[in-house]
Amino acid sequence: MKTKKLLILILIQLFLFQPLSWAGTSELSPHLRISNSIVQATFKNNPTDSQLQQNSDIQTNRELPGLTIAINIRDLGVEILSGGKIIYKNCLEKAEQILPLLKRTFGVSNVYIYDSFYELGKMSTLTHTRKTEDYLTTYNDLGIEERISPIHTGRASVIVKNNYIGKKKTINTSRGQSILDDRNGNSFSLAGMIKKIKNKWKLNINPKLSDSEFPDAKKSAQALKNFLDTSKHLDIKIITDFIPWMAPDAVDETNYKWTFYTEISEAENAQFRSLPGEKEKQKFIENLLAWSGNKSFTAVRITENGLERIILVKRLRFYGIYSADQVVLNPFLPEVQEYYINTLKLLTDAGIGGVRIDLGGILLNKGLKDPEARYLDFVSEEQKQSSEKLHGKPWSEIIAGEEPWKNILSKAKEYARNKNAPLEVLMEIYSYDETEMERVLALGVDKLYYEDVYENYKHLEWGTPEEKANAVNWLYESLEFMIKHKDKLLIFPMSNFDKPSAELLGGPITGMRALSIYTAKAGIKTMVDFRELLGQFGQFFPIPGGIESDGTYSHPFVKDAEAEQRKDFAGTQNALDNSPFLSLINRLFNIQTESGQTIMSLPVLKINPPQKDAHGKLHLSWETDQGIIVRFSIDLNNQGQDSYQVDFFQDNFQQPLKTMHVSSHNNLIQQAI
């Protein structure tokens, strides 16, 4: 078995690093011969995208050191069966198969795998599949009429309000008609990142990654090992989610003291226990949760000392909304810190090189003091004493300034260093005050999410009249900030999994693709979602919900044509082979100097500040080690795809040696001397 594995890895290496030879294709690529004063361009036979891809000139020396590809692994595993049934299976095996392609043709250094990496709770599925008939009209204790839908699963209960109904869409492919909806739930609503088996912590990998119809935990775990072994061999860092939250139905007698919780009175519990049947008990809980003062809680039934009782556990609050399927753990507690540290240790042991901390700012001291969520109002005396023992100071001093992440990340990173496996920490936090950024980075965070480049692109297309009028200036300012803090940020010029895709937004899509390639080449950590690589509109398994004010969804499902194209893994591979992102990379990496080096392979010596002009164009440039200045220009007023150009300069931005852009009409590289 080991011999077979070694042979496979050797074959991958040979395939990856040996230039390919394709008869008759070497003359199909354009060569821009750059000298001090003359540029000559030669084309033969108008090369197609597939011919450019096969050309040996573009198969080697591709380096985009900042590029991170984000892969929805459930989406990657999709299979549409005869009759239209949609399943997902062999998700990690399929991810492993595309790693060499990502390395060879995209120059990828990092891959972020997301969506249901860990085992999910059941509450989320029920939350996001409410139907109109599930709601009933009632009045709360303030006399306000409400439409509510109670949900009970396991020993947890929650009330969903405001007639929330998840997305649903019918698609048609050659394999039949399929129904897409949010039944797969929220991938951030977990049964836990790790779990104890025979008193030993182990990663709680989602068993459905093996097969959503026939889950197999052991198979998923083995597939993860193989995937990580291959990624290590290819020198691709794998990043995954660190999710501090739990599903309500993951709370029980063993861990409820990890949460922010409160007890109901003993009289109420006695009344609850006296009820004759399950139906009456559920109604009691529904009435308890319907009270206006309990709107931010989930109810959990626990049994201790032979008696069942109800506790109320604080739900996660973000963007002013309480999540129905996530509860918050108290990070000041030693038990919670142990859970977090052990998770990071096990991820390191597995071969994971980085983590993205979901909504990490909420568990900063400042976030825990949210005056609306009031998490710290629900800490028991027992919890306070436990925390004081860990931190060696009174509770009042702990909450005055102690940052839970500091100890968690310090111990996890020390463990990783001792294993000679450094752990990179990316935190999803949207505070760009420079003092606050430095404070958070000092806790052991390596990079922060930076969404402003994308958001200002979004304003350009979806903004109010005022936002549209200011979008170009705002985007320019965000590029300035990006370059100034390039070593501290993870950017996404197009979208991440939780944002509307470029295909949904419209506008200068190709320009934004070029910007992503530019920043990744310059070493700025840049994330591009797999959906954006393919140039697609939606996903089979997007984030649940996401309705916009105009009735459209910011987390849309695939279109019929996209579903047809990706009805099996062969179709997904074909879509990747022919992706518009790859087409653009092919063109940029196919431009050569007189000495035979590609412009995109020349080392970047200096990144210049962005520039803008009065015509809605932004310019970004770098200087190479051969004295050539490469400049990308994005035309933000161009609503089609013909929205960027590349110039090559010498002598400090005097007359360009060469200008090129991609025509959206005939896919030829057009040139102007």
Please describe what this structure looks like.
The chain is of the alpha+beta class and 673 residues long. The protein is 34% helix and 23% strand. It has an 8-stranded parallel β-sheet. Strands 7, 8, 9, 15, 16, 17 and 18 form a 7-stranded antiparallel β-sheet that branches. Strands 24, 25, 26, 27, 28, 29 and 30 form a 7-stranded antiparallel β-sheet that branches. α15 (452-462) runs antiparallel to α16.
Helix share, percent:
25-40%
How much of the sequence lies in strands comes to 15-25%
Oligomeric state of the chains in view: single chain
- The overall pLDDT, averaged over residues, is 86
- Per the principal axes of the C-alpha atoms, what is the gross shape? globular
SS-based class: alpha+beta
Strand tally: 30
Low-confidence residue ranges: 5-60, 662-673
Radius of gyration: 27 Å
Ends apart, CA distance between termini: 59 Å
Characterize the biggest β-sheet: 8 strands, parallel
Strand order, largest beta sheet: 22-21-20-19-14-6-3-23
What is the number of helices?
A: 22
